[in-house]
């Protein structure tokens, strides 16, 4: 239950960041940097009386159906929740801050800030097994079947939107949109990578039993034991290896510092762990 609530919170956080970045930085400057929000900005510029939030809701229905059929109901359900959250937040922002104007005269700075905020939000959402809806569903499908990183997969439909942006808003804003799409792709991949980075730890210590107990009982992780012989004294010792999150590793390091500050520890950073206790093998 706690894990599900955490996932819901993270999806809502990601949705808020996407809505915030779009409404305050991208939309006022007519920067359609891909995605369903970019398409909504384009249509809103042609039909300004139709709110961006309403446009986003309307365009997502067909893509929701495709996402549920192709990727599955869990992904579809999370995506529906996320995308309608974004649309709802956009409507709320439009009510609270009507007729928003660019915060500065520098479009490039606003583009960078908007994409940074939106990319962070999208990365959080994708990491929870959902998407922000719209063209991101197409990106997720590409990611599933062609095994391309999600950031690069999202590029494909987003480039189509940026081409449309160039034809509507002019080549200058079209170029800004292309730049935004490229930055967004990189940010999404890096955010997901940071969430899924783990530490592969190997420990040699005179307090091996206590360390093993701490890993299993306190950190709720497993460990593998190897036996190795040192070249200097020719003594055989246990080598404890385990895979931990960054937070778990810091706790383990603090514990080892207390029980055996002369322990020998090697640490390698790994970007993906599959199996029990981690991500499912797909």
UniProtKB/TrEMBL annotation:
Record keywords: Cell membrane, Membrane, Transmembrane, Transmembrane helix
Keyword Membrane (UniProt): yes
Membrane spanning residue stretches: 7-25, 31-50, 62-87, 107-127, 148-169
CDD domains: YitT_C
GO cellular component: plasma membrane
Membrane topology: Multi-pass membrane protein
Protein name: YitT family protein
Subcellular location as annotated: Cell membrane
Principal subcellular localization: membrane
Protein species of origin: Clostridium muellerianum
Lineage per the UniProt record: Bacteria, Bacillati, Bacillota, Clostridia, Eubacteriales
Ranges of residues in domain DUF2179: 221-275
Keyword Lipid biosynthesis: no
Signal peptide: none
């Amino acid at each position: 239950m706690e894990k599900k609530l955490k996932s819901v919170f993270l999806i809502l956080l990601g949705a808020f960041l996407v809505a915030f970045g779009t409404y305050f930085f991208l939309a006022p400057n007519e920067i359609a940097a891909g995605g369903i929000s970019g398409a909504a900005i384009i249509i809103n510029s042609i039909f300004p009386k139709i709110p961006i939030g309403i446009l986003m809701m309307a365009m997502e229905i067909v893509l929701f159906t495709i996402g549920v059929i192709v990727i599955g109901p869990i992904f579809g359900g999370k995506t529906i929740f996320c995308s309608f959250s974004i649309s709802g937040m956009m409507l709320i922002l439009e009510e609270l801050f009507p007729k928003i104007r660019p915060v500065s005269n520098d479009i490039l700075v606003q583009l960078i800030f908007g994409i940074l905020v939106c990319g962070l939000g999208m990365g959080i959402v994708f990491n929870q097994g959902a998407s922000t809806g719209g063209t991101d569903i197409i990106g997720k499908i590409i990611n599933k079947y062609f095994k391309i990183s999600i950031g690069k997969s999202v590029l494909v439909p987003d480039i189509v939107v940026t081409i449309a942006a160039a034809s509507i808003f002019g080549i200058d804003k079209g170029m800004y949109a292309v730049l935004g799409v490229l930055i967004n792709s990189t940010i999404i991949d890096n955010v997901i990578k940071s969430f899924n980075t783990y530490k592969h730890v190997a420990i040699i210590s005179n307090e091996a039993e206590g360390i093993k107990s701490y890993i299993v009982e306190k950190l709720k992780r497993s460990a593998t034991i190897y036996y190795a012989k040192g070249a200097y004294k020719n003594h055989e010792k246990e080598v404890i290896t385990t895979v931990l999150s960054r937070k778990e590793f810091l706790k383990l390091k603090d514990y080892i510092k207390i029980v055996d500050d002369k322990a020998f520890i090697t640490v390698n950073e790994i970007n993906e762990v599959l199996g029990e206790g981690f991500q499912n093998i797909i």
